[in-house]
Write a structure and sequence with these properties.
The protein has four helices and twelve strands; from the N terminus they run E-E-E-E-E-H-E-E-E-H-E-E-E-H-E-H. The chain has helices spanning 65-70, 127-130, 162-167, 186-198, and strands spanning 8-16, 21-25, 41-44, 47-54, 58-62, 81-86, 105-115, 118-125, 138-141, 144-149, 155-160, 178-183. The model has no long low-confidence stretch (mean pLDDT 94).
């Protein structure tokens, strides 16, 4: 489980799509007594992956075919930047919202405009994802906890403040870019409960 508060932007060292072997260069998530360890979960641009080995300045994870299908990770290449967050620990402050790291699908950036110092970024996606995104509700884009607004059947918008733009990959998004999306799971549980009661 994660909070959607990115700790650092890492860099892809190498990726072999056929085997799924991914090496990521990082600093903060590897340092200190609470740095990543083998078998730890880590959010990589919104996808929960398991650390399989460690080096001084990088760590390795395996990206399964299912994860490659659900994300844009088939396009990963050396030098690409990704958002990193270590798993939450009991008692830790949750600054964003509870994020599982289970990417549900993809979205495409269709518009970027400024509102003062902030950017308003509009994402187009599939109805099966957008039905769970509500006005002023939580959504995770590239693993970042955000608040959705202007929610329509084909798109939603989020407000990107300067701090988040600087400290995540969202700040360099361009129209046409693809992003990983995870919706707030609460709505799905409620829908499942209500539907099962009606059967």
């Amino acid at each position: 489980m994660f909070s959607g508060i990115v700790e650092e932007v890492g860099r892809i060292h190498s990726f072999a799509p056929s085997s799924g072997r991914l090496a990521i260069s990082a600093q903060r998530v590897l340092s200190g007594d609470d740095g990543l360890r083998i078998s730890d979960s880590v959010s990589v641009s919104g996808a929960c992956l398991t650390v399989t080995s460690l080096e001084a300045t990088r760590f390795h994870v395996d990206v399964t075919p299912e994860t490659q299908r659900a994300t844009w990770f088939s396009e990963l290449h050396p030098g690409a930047h990704i958002n990193l967050e270590r798993a939450l620990r009991f008692g830790a402050v949750v600054g964003g919202h509870l994020v599982q790291g289970h990417v549900e699908g993809l979205g495409n950036v269709t518009d970027i405009r400024y509102d003062g110092d902030a950017k308003l970024i509009t994402i187009q996606s599939d109805e099966t994802i957008l039905r769970y995104i509500v006005e002023k509700g939580f959504v995770a884009v590239e693993g970042v906890s955000l608040t959705a607004f202007d929610c329509y059947p084909e798109s939603f918008t989020f407000n990107l403040i300067p701090y988040t733009a600087i400290h995540t990959t969202l700040g360099v998004l361009k129209v046409g870019d693809t992003v990983n999306i995870e919706t707030d799971q609460t709505g799905k549980y409620i829908e499942r409960f209500v539907t099962s009661r009606e059967l």
